[in-house]
Amino acid sequence: MISLSTKKVLVPLKENSYQVFIGSSILSILPDEIKRRNLNKNLIIAVDGNVWYYHQEKIKNLFTQIACKIFFYIVPPGEKSKSYLELNEFYTHLLNNGFGRDTLIIGIGGGVIGDLIGFATATFMRGVQLVHIPTTLLASVDSSIGGKTGINFGKRKNIIGAFYQPKAVFIDTDFLDTLPLEEKISGLGEVIKYAFLSDYDLFNFVEKKFNSLFDKKIIQEIILKSVSIKAAIVAQDEKESSLRKILNFGHTFAHAFESEMNFRVKHGEAVVAGMIAALFLSNELNLLSNQNLEKFLSLPLKIKLPLKFASMNKGNIYDIMHSDKKSSSGKINFVLISDIGNILLDVHANKKEIFNALQKTEDAIHKNLIKPL
Ligand SMILES: NC(=O)c1ccc[n+]([C@@H]2O[C@H](COP(=O)([O-])OP(=O)(O)OC[C@H]3O[C@@H](n4cnc5c(N)ncnc54)[C@H](O)[C@@H]3O)[C@@H](O)[C@H]2O)c1
Question: How far is the CA of 139 from the centre of ligand 1 (A)?
Fold first, then answer.
């Protein structure tokens, strides 16, 4: 039974709309929901290794009661698992265990599991049923919603992938109890992104409550707000032909930072650095006033980033951005900002302007690191 404290957000799509359930202990409703929706009972539960370590009893008990056939598949934690090697392992496991088109794949973990398992589900037998159970803050507020799936290839981030929507998403906030603090902080990267995309109410709320954002009640509110914003955007532009691009605010830089550092940084941290760079570039191109630049920088700069973000090779970053899937006709397409809620798509900049923005980003991150607490 769904309790009163469970929140529901609909992702309304032209075809295959789905519900996102948000709340504490909401996993208990999952068996009933699977039955009610008449989803397949041949289950593959793909779980992040760390999540399995902390939560395996709960996970085993939950699914064993409803499955006809069930296999648990543990994915090694970390960005390196978003690879064709890991995909190959997973397909092999599915085939060796006789799974067919009547399979329901349930991914339990952060954005890595969602992207990898989502892509495997989209392609296995041309697509089987998928349910996401996000367990990180980042996956709860962002990656589990909207159907983007994919893997990295060489140094290229998310370069192979598909849009593939789940049947439902269950965000049980109890998972966050075991999430390490640095992963929670990394998740704030996407939360701050939503603050820039939406309105001053959310921006001021996030800024004001910054030191208590991880309180149970506040984090649930933040997740609910973020999911609602993302659902509304995805509903209008499921395949990212226009509006949905605003969700890439800070990401052109972020993906290049991640590639340049061989994915040894957290995605959310790269997004924070990427938003700082996007703010500086917006100002460099006279799209954002000096006054607003200073005001807006104060939010991402509340997060202290690792020192390596203050010493990146600008030439490499520039080249990687050129080869990003979002660049076109030899031009890098930036998503920039002129005010809160006023996001500008497909903006171009010359090399000097980009290098200036990168230099200012490094200086700001460096200055922030040596600032006394
Ligand atoms: N598809 C999308 O729309 C989209 C959007 C944003 C980001 N992403 C992708 O998401 C990925 C980043 O996701 P992430 O930040 O969740 O990273 P992640 O999946 O690597 O998880 C971070 C770490 O937390 C651990 N972990 C997860 N849940 C836990 C829990 N409840 N308790 C203890 N440990 C736990 C994992 O083992 C891992 O070590 C990137 O690959 C990024 O490209 C995708």
Answer: 6
pLDDT tens, 315-373?
999 999 988 777 777 889 999 999 999 999 999 999 999 999 999 999 999 998 776 54
Taking a C-beta distance cutoff of 8 angstroms, is the pair 20, 168 a contact? yes
Residue 136 Cα to ligand 1 midpoint, Å, equals 6
Marked catalytic residue, from 7, 157, 193, 251: 251
Question: Which amino acid makes up residue 250?
Answer: G
Amino acid (one-letter) located at 317: I
**pTM for the whole structure:** 0.95
Quick check: 323 and 317 in contact, CB under 8 A? no
Q: Would the CB of 250 count as within 6 Å of ligand 1?
A: no
61 in active site: no
Asked if residue 144 has its Cβ within 6 Å of ligand 1, the reply is: no
Mean pLDDT across the stretch 281-298? 98
- Does 255 participate in catalysis according to the annotation? yes
The residue whose CA has the least distance to atom 33 of ligand 1 is 179
Q: Exposure string (b/e) for 8-32, b if CB count within 10 Å is 16 or more?
A: ebebeeeeeebbbbbbbebbebbee
Q: Which residues of 82-117 are buried (b: 16+ CB within 10 A; e: fewer)?
A: bbeebbebbeeebeeeebeeebbbbbbbbbbbbbbb
Reduce the DSSP state of residue 116 to 3 states and report it: helix
Catalytic residue check, 101: no
Q: Whose CA is nearest to atom 10 of ligand 1?
A: 111
258 lines ligand 1 (CB under 6 A): no
Q: What token pair was written down for 32? A: 């009933």
pLDDT digits (tens, 9 = 90+) for 87-132: 999 999 999 999 999 999 999 999 999 999 999 999 999 999 999 9
H-helix segments, 310-350: 314-323
Alpha-carbon gap, residue 226 to 140, rounded angstroms: 9
Average pLDDT, the chain: 94
